[in-house]
Amino acid sequence: MRRLPRGRRAVAWIGVIVGVSAALVALPPIQVRSPVAPVIFGLFALTIGIGSWIRGERRIGGYAIATGVLGLIIGYLATRSSVEHLEAVVVWGALFAATLRYATPLVFASIGGLFSERSGVVNIGLEGMMLMGAFFAVWGADVTGQWTLGLAIGMVAGGLTGLLHAFFAVSLRADQIVGGTAINFLALGLTTYLFFKIYGSEGTPTNLSTIPDVRLGFLDDIPVIGDFLHDIFGQLDLMIWIAIVLVVATWVVVFKTPIGLRIRSVGEHPRAADTVGINVYAVRYGAVTVSGMLAALGGAYLSLGFVNSFDDNMTAGRGFIALAALIFGNWRPFGAAIACLLFGFSSALSDFLQEYSTSVSTLFEALPYVLTLVAVAGVIGKSIPPAAIGRPYVKQ
Amino acid sequence: MSERVHQLPEEPNPEIESVVERYWLLQKAGGLVAPLLTVVLAFFISGIVVLVTTGSVGDTLQTYKAIFEGTGLSWFFDIGNYNVGLPFTDAKVWFPWNTNEFESIAAANLQQTLILWVALVLTGLAVAFAFRCGLFNIGAQGQYLAGSIVAVLIATELPKVVDLPGWLLIIATVLGGMLAGAAIAGIAGLLKGTVGAHEVITTIMLNWIVLWVGSYFFGIGGPFQTDEAGTAGTVPSSADIVEKAKLFLFWGDPLLQGVHIGLFAALGALVVYSLTLNRTTLGYEVRAVGHNPEAARYGGISVARNYFLAMAIAGLFAGLAGALDIVGWEFRLDTTQIQGSTVGFIGIAVALLGRNTAVGVALAALLFAALQTGTASRNLDPEFFPPDLASSLAIIIQGLIVLFVGADIIVLLALRRLKRKRGARLTA
Q1: What ipTM is given for this predicted complex?
Q2: What is the pLDDT of residues A221-243, one digit of tens each?
Q3: Which sequence spans correspond to the domains of chain A?
Q4: Among residues B361, B329, B330, B328, which one has the least CA distance to residue B346?
């Protein structure tokens, strides 16, 4: 049993909570209309954050400072904008459901990236692998008439892409970043090529067999919060639930099983791993292939679960956001998942903000990248990659 | 701060060849054999894709022929009795090639290739310069966009404030674009030098930040989106830059996008690149850091400073590319352009294939520019190959080339081993 945080850490966490409340008080359902409340909350969080920072609790203290500033700004803006606007944009149930929808493809891809990078192979090619999954899942579902087979075919396509990356990165010892860049080019070219060749300008068929939604009607019956829960979890795509399971399963596999230990040791110190009889090449091949399959699932969810069609370059940089989430989450499954949720929330909010102002919503799209830049800059804690990442291993 | 920097470099591990060492080997290997093999192999494999599509070897060859003719490079083979106007005079002198783009389609195509060549040379140099310092600049795209965005802003907004003469406005625009590129790249270099944040990650993030900020500027309701009729069309875009900020065209008709004098800026950049790296203290330090940061540090070279400078200079090249494209032929920016442009990414392929040398970059840029123009749907005869597939074919070829370039270390090692064996046999 983990102990609860104490001392400075706990204080810093309180700062974070106060910072979040600075925004919350001004938003529905509380909706304080005076700007004084968010300002006071925000400044309080800021003070706690700075205090914690000075006393050495930099990571959480940094979070408190950040949430304090952001909460103050958001809360202040909320009190300035009209009630109708607020209630149109901030619909918590719908916002959280949309967050889950946006986060899911990122979760699959960044968990995929986690396997690859934990084994010491940089995977810039996540974007391409997602794209392969997105196209081949649609194609498979179209040809076989079954979404299950579509998913399987998408996974195979992603797995093969991963295998190609592994072949160049592990066996040929090619530069992994160059290899990943090539994978992105190739996947974009190949999927666009096949898309136009097979479906022409008419696009993918509209009667595709798509991934079903899971309906949980009983949530409505829960007293008090039932409505709210139903709004979020009542009708979600099956893949969203699979993503949640995947995150937990990945944590178990990576940190609690011998396989995970092997993957991590190969990524941290391949020579030592080799010495104790672990086949470095085999582990890396496996990890990168799995990485491709998972990223492909993320792409498949996008095409076969989210929008029910394929379009050229439809992943539109999500592979890179997934990579960012992985780094933001410090190469850990739950960290990456939380980062994906954060990025998903910013996408969802950007969607809802469109009603308010299209241009602001566009600017909002940059937020995940800014956050990641701040994170890797080490301002808020520091991301530490696996030690042997990016280095090919030469067997002796 | 300096203490942290000292912990940064990878522990020296003689067993594991580092990325940088391998590129050093590639650098030394030089030569034309490996890049040529790479290109031939890439075209061969994509030929299989074409073969599957068209179903006959004849059509495959015809497709490649059509692509080649679309590149405009066939222009050089069409020698005859033509004349060309002498610049700044009315005189016409004899010339072996037909320079009139209305008479010769090849000439018009070649102009397109050359326009693209300018941008690819510069983004290629942006990637190459960072490479020579041991940095992988994936951010050329963002730096290029930053250059374009700032160039558009200066060339549309500045004339509203002060009335500068044309040449001064152009200089201000281009300089502004270059500095914007340098600033964006400099962030990555600074973070690498001070806290050791990996430049690949930071430059990818910066690419997207620039892309979305640009989309915000010129998108619907953005602060610099224009409502002027005629210029915007259906896609939200910036206003057109003022007439006098447009570059002089030295070959071609303004209505058809001729070749602008930015071409000479690109040629100049190639020379500057080569001289800076090989003939200056800065270049020496950059290369020393690229070769072995640890050794460079022992030699008294500030690694952090050179990381920053190398990235900033790389950004200057990419920003120049963006600014020249604006004042040379684009004249405005719209959101689809911002989100769909891949010039900076192709720059990676250019630098890799060109072995980070000036001559190599010039040649590789010509190859990729030609490939891009040759597969553009308007240049390709639909009789042999569906044009809407052609641009994806170009992306596949680019991908294959990058893939093989990344792995040609194996070819080099094999060649080296072969040589050693032969040498051993000779001495025996």
Answers
A1: 0.82
A2: 777 777 777 777 877 888 899 99
A3: 7-87, 92-376
A4: B361
